[in-house]
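haha ok so turns out i had the wrong file open the whole time. this is the CORRECT one, sorry everyone. sequence first:
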Amino acid sequence: MSTRFSETLDTLEQRFNALKPEVELSVSDDELDIEGHVVVWSTRNAIGGPLGRCGKGGTRITPTLTLDEVRRLARTQSLKNAAAGLPLGGAKSGLRADPQGDDFERQYRQFVQLVAPALRQNGGRWGGFGFDLGAQPIHAQWACDELDRLDVFTGKPVEMGGTDYDKEGIAGLGVTEAAITLLSERGRAVEGATAAVQGLGAMGAAVCRYAVERGMRLMLICDPRIDGCWSIPEATQPELMQSISTMDFVTTKRTLESAGLAPMPLDSILEADVDVLFPCAVQDVIGAKNAHLVESRSVVEGANNPVTADGRSALFSRGIDVIPDIIANPGGAIAAFVELTSKVSIEENIRTGAKSLEAKQITRNRVAENVREVLHLAGESNSSPVEAAHYLAYQRIFSA
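then structure:
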């Protein structure tokens, strides 16, 4: 790494690490066993934007969610939104609850009411509810019902004036575009390039779908909901893609079993000898202790923080490119920005799907442009793509 680049990166990183959350709100309801949080990390790069100093990020829902987890997600979202060139700060919200629980709807609706004072439209810096781990399309309906407004949840269905972000898999589209751009910039063919996808939730399912559409060969998939890691014979792909795309885990597993296949351990996905490994499950699945197992030529991050800092360094030292999540998966924030700023009417959106189309086009363009910029900067400064990505994000945060 060049000395000048290294010194500037260190200075910017120290400035970013010194930032404190601009907003933190924690709420609880003992009767309904509710604990929820809203964190806005930094809105510096939103200064002068059309929404003012507004942050944006999704709403995570898990039975083990903590305030520290939401803080970490908001911090990363600040980098992601800045790296994408969006005039949006980083924010996240979360609810500690079981989305499959019997009383979940009551819990979610009460959570909406409790955190409503932090909404951007009410004078705060949080951009509202959205999709993250554990979220379902019906949550948009519940949130909008509770507050009697359509502008409190992004990623809504088209008929509610949204982009249908989850259904359209816009974040997965961006992650796929990042891989395609990386392959092209490295002089590798996209058609026939092999892929392995870890995690078949909304992100992983969309990556599978868009990667195959662009001519990549899906070699392995894994998810605990299909009981392991599966190697995919080419002949089974047409049958599988429908069930994978719709997250029909029962049919996906049945199709694989009917082809005479048996699952391998979940961690087998890390040893896949493929052109691109897409970790699309949860955070910290690749670290210094298991990075040596990775056999892929490149890793394109679909989940939030799926590779630790030590893991990224270990992969780079072995010549494995890593495109970090802050560059690869800003599709959700882009879709949110379109919903928050678009003047397209609900009627026109229903008729044409204009907001979804706009979000997809911006996602493709922004991700491809940023991957190229990161690779160019990494080559010029003799740094890793991850270091170049953070340099780019820090610059965009503090340039405001």
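DSSP finds 15 helices and eleven strands in the chain.
again sry for the mixup
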